[in-house]
Specification:
By secondary structure, the protein is mainly α. Helices cover 68% and strands 4% of the residues. Strands 1-3-2 form a 3-stranded antiparallel sheet. α5 (110-126) runs antiparallel to α8 (174-196) and α8 (174-196) runs antiparallel to α9 (200-221).
């Protein structure tokens, strides 16, 4: 029997003010309106958005946890600038997750496969017009869709964060979008075609070739081609 006077419980606020502020900052960064290495001033941002400094600080904390912002000594909070080492690490994790997603595709529903094909189609439509924002979102949906085949909401959310973090690297080199995304159209179609036919080994091979090509292009654009080993050589030489 329910108590006559149930204890007062605060209603669940599914999207708090810091969440909304973080969303606004994240969107501006992912649209390229706030480039990497830009300092974000807590007082100025709070004043502009009409929120408290505490709220702005909490939003910064959320975005730092996502890897979008970082705290630097003597500079405060800045938009993170990815290095070639960061990119290599992200791609290492992507290979593990997306390859396993393709392996799990044997049990995938037709709706899940259709979502992959739909993302590839949106990507195809966005690239010729150089609509890189739409192309990136379609690319994200396709690759996260592969991870989603594993059936783990936590891994899907993790993969989404990884790919959005990777977007920071694209801001430094618009030519990467032009060159890489044009090649990716063929790669995406091959991956989806193999998955839809149940050709998992061929799909994995196509995926790995695609990721290797994309990673190399991004890292070259960042001015480093060998990732961690290059950094290690520089340290030994100094």
């Amino acid at each position: 029997m329910a108590p006559a006077n149930p204890p007062a419980v605060a209603p669940i606020n599914r999207l708090t003010t810091p969440d909304r502020v973080a969303d606004a900052i994240r969107s501006a960064i992912l649209r390229g309106q706030i480039p990497p290495s830009t300092p974000l001033r807590e007082v100025a941002l709070a004043s502009r958005l009409g929120v408290s400094r505490h709220t702005a600080r909490e939003a910064f904390r959320l975005l730092a946890k996502e890897g979008i912002l970082e705290h630097l000594a003597f500079r405060g909070v800045v938009v993170r600038r990815l290095t070639a080492t960061d990119v290599a690490d992200i791609y290492r994790v992507r290979r593990m997750l997306e390859v396993q997603g393709i392996e799990a595709s044997r049990a995938a529903s037709s709706e899940a496969i259709d979502r992959l094909a739909e993302a590839a189609t949106r990507f195809d439509r966005a690239v010729p017009g150089e609509d890189w924002r739409s192309a990136f979102e379609a690319d994200l949906d396709l690759h996260v869709g592969l991870v989603d085949l594993l059936g783990s909401p936590r891994l899907t959310a993790f993969a989404t964060g990884l790919l959005r973090e990777l977007r920071l690297a694209h801001f430094l080199q618009k030519e990467v979008d032009t060159a890489g995304y044009r090649r990716s159209r063929t790669r995406h179609r091959a991956i989806v075609r193999h998955v839809s036919r149940g050709e998992r080994t061929a799909a994995q091979e196509a995926l790995l070739a695609h990721l290797a090509e994309s990673e190399a292009l991004l890292r070259r654009g960042l001015g480093e081609t060998a990732g961690p080993s290059a950094s290690l050589r520089r340290k030994r030489a100094s």
